[in-house]
TrEMBL record, chain A:
InterPro entries: ABC2_TM, ABC2_TM_bact-type, ABC_2_transport, Nod_factor_ABC_transporter
Family: Belongs to the ABC-2 integral membrane protein family.
Stated name of the protein: Transport permease protein
Main location as per UniProt: membrane
A single Gene Ontology CC term: ATP-binding cassette (ABC) transporter complex
MF term (GO), any: ABC-type transporter activity
Organism: Streptomyces minutiscleroticus
Automatic annotation (TrEMBL), chain B:
Protein name in UniProt: ABC transporter
Span of domain ABC transporter: 4-239
Membrane topology label: Peripheral membrane protein
MF term (GO), any: ATP binding
Stored InterPro entries: AAA+_ATPase (IPR003593), ABC_transporter-like_ATP-bd (IPR003439), ABC_transporter-like_CS (IPR017871), ABC_transporter_ATP-binding (IPR050763), DrrA1/2-like_C (IPR025302), P-loop_NTPase (IPR027417)
One annotated GO biological process: response to antibiotic
Stretches assigned to coiled coil: none
Pfam families reported in the protein's UniProt record: ABC_tran, DrrA1-3_C
This protein's GO CC annotations: plasma membrane
Subcellular location: Cell membrane
Alphabetically ordered keywords of this record: Antibiotic resistance, ATP-binding, Nucleotide-binding, Transport
Protein family per UniProt: Belongs to the ABC transporter superfamily.
Length: 251, 322
């Protein structure tokens, strides 16, 4: 109970900053919407791209994962200033649990991601995406789990590195291969065998494919099972890593 | 009650050049209601010790009870009962003063309605009244420091740690801050443990001083005792040229004087400090009909103490550490 209250307290505090800088929510949407508007239509000529479901059912899931990767995945940037100004250390001397300190911030990222996902799905529906409510809801759950994992990981990276100068290049150079190997823009069904095999080391690939199946109304598939398992495990592992980092002395 | 009771507290780090013993086996006791100063040059291990005592850093050896709770087995209990003001502060520059204080109060479990009067009282006490709606980043250095202290006090901790509280403040803000620190004990009944590398600060504020250098406590005592320990008062006596030999005789003949040094009409010497020693010197001079032109007595500074203990001045040690 105490932990829940503390988590909400940290969340509430973080959210106030989000509302103060509303522009960041919109800015995070610009690129994914551009992909939908300026890149999506090119794909409609490609047909089913070797997958069940139509172009939008394949492409919108990719954009959702892109959103999580480049939104929640970069949130660690913001904590570095708090580490430097001593805010994190001050919070660590209060009786508030490390779980609450981490999760309050993670939930803020996930809340922002949720709003953005709803907007992306709405834009997708306008462009011709067909998906039923159950498919959309289960897809959103996977996005939330992925966002939780990426936010926790990014926050611990920020706390551990304590420097924007290291954080930014590290993340930009890591996210590009992660994005390409997840088959976000084009599905890995188009890939030659070696690339397909290589992409299987990337957990995000399983999540994109699971969301694609969910949008295409296919619930009982291996891809859905794999994607769900991967996102749950990823979330648990990343939150555990995050808690360790927040509890660690050098933080 | 003993507020801090630490035994053999030590901390070593792994560095590229091998193991670094930042703190090597510190024993210390702080009683309820004391203001204790932790004095030493930069790099002496003061902050590391403070971070261990405030649960931020796990000791590699040793145990401690802080504010009645065991440091290792009940860190949350310790956190509930202490306030900690870090060297660089911990207020969010992007936040508004009142919000930051409210958040802090709520993190210690207070409800909004409990927190309101508490924050108003603190703001008043620390001279932050009228700044509630200001952005923290726009405060002056002195205001910021007082806010940091207010943040450490919202839950009325019986024990407060201040890490180099006056660093970077101008003399006026510094004096104000000292008054506030004295007020913590005198008005709030708190025990204060502060670290500083300013000798005059430790002298002005503390009931007891621990001197730390190179990861160990060299000595602990009351500021007065520490000064006595060194060399006594420095006395400068000026007499008429004709009186010099007689005055010199008198000085050398008194108990507890040493290091007598005569240049021209000036006789310099060290004398054991006591409130009567000057009277005795004056009487002895009088008995030989020596009428001094001037007499001046200087208490040794903590800088003298440091010099005697470490063989180098505090400034030299910190230059080496930097």
């Amino acid at each position: 109970m105490q932990t829940l209250r503390d988590t909400l307290l940290v969340f509430e505090n973080q959210l106030r900053f989000t509302f103060r800088y509303k522009i960041t929510i919109v800015m995070g949407l610009v690129q994914p919407v551009l992909y939908l508007l300026l890149f999506g239509p090119l794909l409609t000529k490609l047909g089913d791209m070797g997958r069940p479901g139509d172009t939008w059912q394949t492409f919108v899931p990719g954009v959702l994962v892109y959103l999580a990767l480049f939104g929640a995945g970069f949130c660690g940037f913001g904590i570095i200033a708090d580490v430097r100004s001593g805010v994190i250390e001050r919070l660590r001397v209060t009786p508030v649990s490390r779980f609450a300190l981490l999760m309050g911030r993670v939930i803020r990222e996930v809340a922002v991601l949720l709003v953005q996902s709803v907007i992306i799905i709405a834009v997708g529906l306008l462009l011709g995406l067909r998906a039923n409510v159950l498919g959309i809801l289960s897809a959103v759950i996977l996005v939330v789990l992925l966002g939780t994992a990426l936010a926790a990981l990014s926050l611990s990276l920020g706390v551990a590195l304590k420097s924007e100068d290291q954080f930014a290049p590290l993340l930009t150079s890591a996210t590009l291969p992660i994005m390409l190997l997840a088959g976000i823009l084009l599905p890995m069904t188009l890939a030659p065998t070696w690339l397909d095999v290589l992409s299987r080391i990337n957990p995000l690939r399983y999540i994109v494919d699971a969301i694609r199946d969910l949008f295409a109304d296919r619930f009982a598939t291996w891809a859905v099972l794999e994607g769900t398992a991967v996102s749950v495990v990823l979330a648990v592992v990343c939150v555990a890593v995050g808690m360790r980092t927040f509890a660690k002395e050098s933080a | 009650m003993t507020m801090i009771d630490a035994q053999g507290l030590a901390r070593s780090f792994q560095a590229p050049q091998g193991e670094v013993n930042a703190v090597r086996g510190v024993d210390l006791k702080v009683e309820d209601g004391e203001i204790v100063g932790f004095l030493g040059p930069n790099g002496a291990g003061k902050t590391t010790t403070l971070r261990m005592l405030t649960t931020l850093l796990r000791p590699t050896a040793g145990t401690a009870r802080v504010a009645g709770c065991d440091l290792l087995s009940d860190p949350v209990g310790v956190r509930r009962r202490i306030g900690y003001v870090a060297q660089g502060g911990g207020a969010n520059p992007a936040e508004v003063v009142a919000n930051e204080l409210l958040l802090q109060a709520r993190l210690y479990g207070m409800s909004k309605s409990e927190a309101g009067p508490r924050i108003a009282d603190l703001a008043e006490r620390l001279g932050l009244g009228g700044l509630e709606t200001r952005l923290i980043g726009s405060l002056s250095g002195g205001q910021r420091r007082r806010l940091d202290i207010a943040l450490g006090l919202v839950h009325r901790p019986p024990l407060i740690f201040l890490d180099e509280p006056s660093t970077g403040l101008d003399p006026t803000s510094r004096n104000q801050l000292w008054d506030h620190i004295r007020g913590l004990r005198d008005e709030l009944g708190a025990t204060v443990f502060l670290s500083t590398h300013y000798l005059d600060e430790a002298d002005a504020l503390c009931d007891r001083i621990l001197i730390m250098d190179q990861g160990a406590i060299l000595v602990e005592d009351r500021p007065e005792e520490l000064k006595n320990r060194v060399s006594g008062d420095a006395v400068t006596l000026e007499v008429a040229a004709a009186d010099v030999p007689a005055a010199q005789d008198v000085v050398r003949g008194l108990a507890g004087t040493r290091a007598v040094n005569v240049t021209g009409q000036t006789i310099r010497f060290r004398a054991d400090h006591s409130s009567r020693s000057m009277i005795e010197i004056m009487r002895a001079l009088d008995a030989r009909a020596v009428d001094p032109i001037s007499i001046q007595v200087d208490r040794p500074t903590l800088d003298d103490v440091f010099l005697t203990l470490t063989g180098q001045s505090a400034a030299a040690t910190s230059a080496r550490a930097a």
